[in-house]
Amino acid sequence: MKKITSLFLFTLIYVNSVAQVFPTTDSTWAESSPVIDYAREVINTLCDPKMNGRGVVKGGDQLAADYILTEFRSIGVTPIGNSYFQKFPVNANTFPNKMDLLFDKDKTSLQAGIDFWVEPNCPSIIGSYKLIYIDRKMLNDRMVLLDKLRDAKEGFILIDNENKTGESPETTKKIDALIQKIKTDMQVQLKGVMIYDKVNLSWASSNIQSARPVIYVVKDMDISKVKTAKVEIEAEYKTTYQTQNVVGIIEGSLFPDSAIIISAHYDHLGMMGANVIFPGANSNASGVAMMLNLAKHFEMIKPKYSIIFIALGAEELGLEGSKAYTNFPALPLSKTKFLLNFDVIGTGVDGAVVVNGSLLEANYKMLNDINNRDKYIKNLKPRGEACISGHCIFQKAGVPSFSFYAVGGDIYYHKLEDTPENTPLTAFESMFNIIIKYIERIK
């Protein structure tokens, strides 16, 4: 699911050599069945470290796309034309190599993804730099701030962002805006910005590279006593990198020239340094697992309308896969009856949300009636328009679209805990059954 590309801030990261399994608090785990077993197989494969986080780094996106192509062929989903792949270019900032941070004369380096992390648009930087400390109270004093920035001109401003005690909401808003300005305003002359903040946020991908690095330190320490830092971050900015959607079709038995689209993005965040990999089980291996399960069903029980399956690439880089397909659709968009998109559906103890459900009221009613009659999941809640996943571009292009995400339990969106072990698939098979019956009713 796409929140916002590029400049968002993010979290502790999945590290192969040191990651631990964090049990989910959602105690309702799906029981074994052919649908659930295949979903787990898909999720485990897509989250394997060999996939390199399914991002641009080390061709992780291509490895994942190759796997989906193989599954399409095995199921009986055929290409539209000569290839399953719809290629398109993207820009991406990546971190395939060394990432190191050392304070003062400490002999032990801080660990990327454990002790520190970088904004995804961070550029390369190598060298030793002085650190000029400032806390939030000092930031609120203009003269102190200007002096600190002047002192940090050839080094890093080190912002202690931990203590917000006593701040009014207005002051907090003002200081947060000021920190954002220090990070991004190129009139502020700094080598970089370092922020001490142990808040557990989430990471993302970036299709741009900023002019200065921003590093978050999350290690428990007395940051006010740190004076210098040795920094080594190797970023690689890729331009016009060729990635792809994976597109296939099952032809309809009655109306083969009209189609329903089932989509899910397969890309994820890739890597942050040589040893840090984001697994992306819930986001969005779970959605791909739903798409492939539906493909299996409709290959056995032929649909009235053709069904086009699209594993969307580069969703995390700005919904680029959706843009590529809507610009060059395999079947005219005017021939598309409906689109169903799946993103973050690995939990569901409290049900699911239907994006555009409030917009397309008649379609939502039909969907919800199915759930109410057969009592599949606890709640199927409608939501208005929200450009948070690949469906958004299709909706804007005139294709009526729903996007589904599960609610309840631990979502672990873009976090280190987003592993297969923490993906209970609580409402997965129920959603699968709802979608089958809904597609059968589309006229």
Describe this structure in words.
The chain is α/β, with parallel strands linked by helices. It folds into two domains: 34-92 and 238-441, Zn peptidases (Aminopeptidase), CATH 3.40.630.10; 99-233, Glucose Oxidase, domain 1 (3-Layer(bba) Sandwich), CATH 3.50.30. Helices cover 27% and strands 23% of the residues. The protein has ten helices and 15 strands. The strands form two sheets. It has an eight-stranded mixed beta sheet with strand order 1-9-11-10-12-15-13-14, sandwiched between helices. A seven-stranded mixed beta sheet has the order 2-8-4-5-6-7-3. Helix 1 (34-46) crosses helix 6 and helix 8 packs across helix 10 (428-441). The longest helix has 20 residues, at 281-300. It is elongated and about 75 Å long. It starts with 33 loop residues before the first helix and ends with a helix. The model is unreliable at 3-25 (pLDDT under 50).
TL;DR?
Helix content is 27%, strand content 23%. By secondary structure, it is an alpha/beta fold. It folds into two domains: 263 residues, 3-Layer(aba) Sandwich (Aminopeptidase), CATH 3.40.630; 135 residues, 3-Layer(bba) Sandwich (Glucose Oxidase, domain 1), CATH 3.50.30.
Largest sheet: 8 strands, mixed
Nearest-integer average pLDDT: 92
CATH superfamily of the largest domain: Zn peptidases
| Approximate shape | elongated
Number of separate helices: 10
Radius of gyration, Cα only, in angstroms? 23 Å
**Tally of DSSP β-strands:** 15
With strands numbered from the N-terminus, the spatial order across the biggest sheet is: 1-9-11-10-12-15-13-14
CA-to-CA gap between the ends?
A: 29 Å
CATH architecture label of the largest domain: 3-Layer(aba) Sandwich
Order of helices and strands: HHEEEEHHEHEEEEEHEHEEHEHEH
What proportion strand? Answer: 15-25%
What is the count of distinct domains?
A: 2
* CATH fold title of the largest domain: Aminopeptidase
Question: Which ranges are low-confidence, i.e. pLDDT below 50, for 5 or more consecutive residues?
Answer: 3-25
Share of helix, binned: 25-40%
- Helix-strand category: alpha/beta
CATH class of the largest domain: Alpha Beta
